[in-house]
Amino acid sequence: MVNDGKDEAGSDYSGSTGRKESNNANGGSVGRRSFLKATGAGAVATGVAGCLGGGGDEESVPLSDRDEIRVGVLAPAPSDNPIGASIANGAKLAAQEINDNDGIEGTEMSVIVKDTKEQPQTGTEKYGELIRDENVDMTTGVFTSEVLLAIMDDMPGAETVHMTTGAATPDASARVKNNYEENKYHFRTGPINAHHLGENIVDFVDAKADDLGWESVAVLVEDYTWTEPVSNVLDDTLSDTGINIEMSRRYASGTEDFNPIYNDVEDSGADAAVIAMAHTGTPAVIQWAQQQRPFEFGGIHVPMQLPSYYGAVEGASAYGVTQNSATPTAEVTDTTVPFAEAYNENYDSYPVYTGYISYDAVNQYASVVESKGDIGADPVIDGLENSSYTGTIGTVEYYGKDHEFAHDVKYEQGLVWPVFQQWQPNDDGTGSQEVIFPDNLATADYQTPPWI
To answer: Among 58, 95, 165, 218, which residue carries the largest CB count within 10 Å?
Structure first.
């Protein structure tokens, strides 16, 4: 059974916990979540971990003691936000398919969705509701880095595994490394963290230098938390590819008028703008295309990852390039295209990158629970740390607890290695997301904008 939790998006959940009574490791019947509800806690607090004596009933919870596993999903406005909808629907589809195949050793999964509104305070409140009121066994989702860091403050008290499927800040993995016992509950199934996102752009530009023909670039990065490591990598290593960096700018969050910035890019003589954009991406690409600016445009552009984006901006994304976890036609693995088609059949649209990752997170969690026969946090953490799961975005493995990027998905060829796509126009007025890198997945060659 797949359900939405009651939230501002208009969904509701009316079921019971669906759980069998079980005793904790100390022989008592009051577990972590019962304790939270009994005390009337208004939010999950870090201090709760100490009150429960180091793990409570999370050390071992046999799967056989449960007749339902509850997954909590945190997503921005899933009713009308494609990124949030993909997080929620990717998780729901995974649970639906698991339940259609007799669940996890006969135990069904349910999904409860909460809207974070991309606000740290709201995200913290909704996370608390999932833990305290909905009794979830794991959480997933979260798009905004600021929201992720806020709810991480409460994970030690919640003692519940969380698998991030949208936020990229390496600060989360740094917390795991620097204080493992407090933060071991956090894993990033995807995307690759922001440092690796920067490396991914450099790897792409280096590998495709001859095809791109870019001898000089202007680096344009929106000023948000997630982009800080991206900027650092680009500034430090992009020139190692032999390309000249003519200018590098972190422009103000919320920028809508790109004319002054683009004038500076033109004056610099750069062949291309290498970008990292999410919140400001749409005005940036529309103004670039409508004004036919004399430089090419590519890097990380989150809105261009949306399969319906070409029509939404009336073709303004044509010839723009962006990194992506997958596209509906890219056979990253044997499950990528079937998932995209199943998603489209169920939700009448194709997923954004967060949908692929959320689908993989729920399936990887299920595979670990099945192999362990246990849904306690400690067994699941051990299982995830040693897991190698091939999903839609590649083979998901996690860096160890002592690694610089502890519990982040590994960025490596043969594991998770994102694609770069270019929007290319079709004769009928539509556009296609064509993969141009890596070469083994390429569906087309790079096309230079015809006005350049």
So the answer is: 165
Secondary structure E strands in 235-293:
244-251, 272-277
- Report the amino acid identity of residue 184: K
24 within some domain: no
Q: What is the pLDDT of residues 151-190, one digit of tens each?
A: 999 999 999 999 999 999 999 999 999 999 999 999 999 9
Torsions phi, psi for 344 (to 5 deg): -65, -40
Please indicate, yes or no, if residue 54 is contained in any of the structural domains.
yes
Chain-centroid distance of CA 402 in Å reads: 23
Count of the separate structural domains present in the chain: 2
CB atoms within 10 A of CB 246: 18
**What pTM value is reported for the model?**
0.87
- Sheet of strand 68-75, all strands in order from the earlier edge strand to the far edge: 108-115, 68-75, 138-141, 161-164, 186-188
Strands (E), 18-165: 68-75, 108-115, 138-141, 161-164
Q: Which amino acid is at 283?
A: P
- Between CA 189 and CA 170 the distance in angstroms is 13
